[in-house]
Design goal:
Mean pLDDT: 94
Oligomer: single chain
Shape: globular
Number of domains: 1
CATH class: Alpha Beta
CATH topology: Sufe protein. Chain: A
Distance between the termini: 28 Å
Structural class: alpha+beta
């Protein structure tokens, strides 16, 4: 599901409870990462739950893009991961750096509905992804 599809669906839902259920559904659809990737170096620190995030630079059709894999032990966090993957995975490093992710979170109401620990974890994931993109931006 694209980030635009997620935003459209999210905005059509009437309240936070329905939106939260939608995030959970997104998390349930998230492919699990392999056990080998669930290593300490892939853990995102600052998250309340366990989050593993792996970024890879891949050349597709002559264009360098970032491919992301991530997983969590918490279902709502898996939904947040699905949003981040839709926003960032398959994008060039510069597209990742140029995306106003805060505006996306604001549009979804995540900053007002997520607990401070969940927001910190979400921002920790964003910082990890943006840091990787910055290393590989041309």
């Amino acid at each position: 599901m694209s980030i635009d599809d997620i935003l459209q669906e999210f905005e059509e839902l009437l309240d936070w409870e329905e939106q939260c259920d939608f995030l959970i559904d997104l998390g349930l659809e998230l492919p699990e990462i392999s056990t080998e990737l669930k290593r300490d170096e892939n853990i995102v620190h600052g998250c309340q739950s366990l989050v593993w995030l792996v970024a890879q630079r891949v050349v597709e059709d002559g264009v360098t893009v970032v491919r992301l894999q991530a997983d969590s032990d918490a279902i709502i966090v898996k939904g947040l991961i699905a949003v981040l993957l839709a926003a960032y995975s398959g994008k060039t490093p510069q597209q990742i750096l140029d995306r106003d992710i805060e505006a996306l979170f604001e549009r979804m109401g995540l900053n007002q509905h997520l607990s401070s620990t969940r927001r910190n974890g979400l921002h920790g994931m964003v910082q990890r992804i943006r840091g990787f993109a910055a290393l590989h931006a041309v």
